[in-house]
Amino acid sequence: MSLPPNTPGMPRGGAPDVDAWRGMLHAALVELDAIPIGGTGDGADYTGWARQFDLGFLTLTDVGSDPVRVVRAPRMLVGNQDDFYLLSIAQESSSSFNGNVRSQLRRGDAVLLDSTAPFQLSADEFAHHLVLTLPRADVARVMPVDRERVGRRIAAENPVLRVLRAAIAEICVGGERFDPDTLSELGHTVRELMFSVLRSDELADQAGVNGLLGHRAQLLRMRDFVRRHLAEPDLSAKTVAAAFGVSVRYVEIVFREGGTSPARHIRETRMEEARRSLASPRQRQRSIAAIARSVGIENPTVFTRMFRQFHDITPSEYRHSPAGESCRRSRAEGPPPG
Predict the structure, then answer these.
(1) How far apart are CA 296 and CA 315, in angstroms?
(2) Is pTM beyond 0.70 here?
(3) Which of 334, 333, 336, 331 lies closest to 281, judged by CA?
(4) What is the C-alpha separation between 194 and 244, in angstroms, rounded?
């Protein structure tokens, strides 16, 4: 498993052993014990990291390790000065234990943890979490947090959590490109999304969730919906509106603020996905008509005309062009080392 880039103040390339990783956790999050699972700490090769971003209002920590059980033990609370809530978002399957609440976390699920109470996270396979850490006092000023909420799984399907995951994933990928002022601005957005996730976890109706989100957050959700339903021929602003329980006019406003229209975004997304499929070495034997249907266009002639409008080349010409061959080679070879 490849490691993320080096984190300032952390050993380059991640932790060489469990003890070093335990120290990383203490520096980046709170004091935690780390107990390897499956002999990864007994002289075997070890992979672990803790990569942190200062977002001003809160911190974002990308944490990964070989199979491990991480424990916030009662003894660590004696004289404890840590007073944080941690929203931990699982990037791989794991489990959490908080008080009497045990939760199985699938990829994309989240759980709220309290640094002033014991808790445990464990993973039998590779452990990977994105953790947002925010002072408990900051949360208390905005909203009450019931004890029952702590340790309870927040499902990956939660639409506001999907928006939050998309935002912090972009920060993790491009964090080094952002200056500190930009990260602080993003931190304000992430903080508000975190509050929205906690509120939305108690809402059962789509209208309530919609009310928590501004247009930019709604645009992320609607774009994600388009990607997941691209193969449906009748995908349109009306389809999106029905899925989100809003009017077609509202969908048009959200997309217009993003600099486009629903219809154009759907067309562009279809043509970009078609281009990727034509360049994929795994799909070389797939017919152009089949690729057209996979992006919701049933008429091959219409597909060819639309593809040419967007890419100045026909699908068949692109598949055999130097650009298409170059994309196939890069996909087949994989990313460069490092």
Answers:
(1) 15
(2) no
(3) 331
(4) 21
